[in-house]
Amino acid sequence: MGILEVIGTFFIILGSLFLFLGALGLYRMPDVFNKLQAGTKATTLGFLSAALGALLVKPEWTFKIILIAAILLLTNPLGSHALARAAKKSGLFELGEEQKGGEK
Amino acid sequence: MLYNIALGLTGLGAVLSLASLVKSRSLVEKMVALDVITTLFSAGLVLFSLIFDSSFLLDIAIVYALLSFGAVFVVARYQERGL
């Protein structure tokens, strides 16, 4: 077991921990904007960390792993932004009670 | 061994996202949960390709991420102003 494999396994465990914490935040948060904030960013970071770990463990798959990491890094914030804009423009979702009280 | 632990954590996150998908009522919240589930499944496919030592599962992960992007955009546009 080389040194690259040890570092890659560490990154994979770290990334899966971030993925789990992002899903937990998605489960716990009350609002749609909070859900977007918790769910999308943490899972993107977790996936990139896991892909970096896989790239360190298997250096012969570099092209495919970099391709999928680039695709996910491009498309995930775009989808999150489109969903947030749809939630804002449809007018179904208002701010929480705390923020409403602060605005008055 | 450690890959299996990482896969278990990812699967636990997928179960939590599925519970959030069932629990939430509006369309956009359900689509957020589906987006997170897709990211988790892509990471799970990468981990499966490490466990089985076969690189063709990475191609499936690429196609899966692209299809999920299209689905999210269609649902966001439908919620915004109709098809």
What features would you describe in this structure?
- The complex is a heterodimer of chains A (104) and B (83).
- Chain A is 85% helix and 0% strand.
- Chain A is built from four helices and no strands.
- The relative contact order of chain A is 0.14.
- The model of chain A is unreliable at 100-104 (pLDDT under 50).
- Chain B has a single domain (2-81), classed as Helix Hairpins.
- The mean pLDDT of chain B is 90.
- Chains A and B meet through helix 1, helix 2 and helix 3 of A and helix 1, helix 2 and helix 3 of B.
**What is the CATH first-level class name of chain B?**
Mainly Alpha
Quaternary form: heterodimer
Radius of gyration of chain A, in Å, reads: 18 Å
What does the largest sheet of chain A look like?
A: none
Fill in the keyword field for this structure:
heterodimer, A: mainly alpha, 4 helices, disordered C terminus, B: 83 residues, mainly alpha, Helix Hairpins, 3 helices
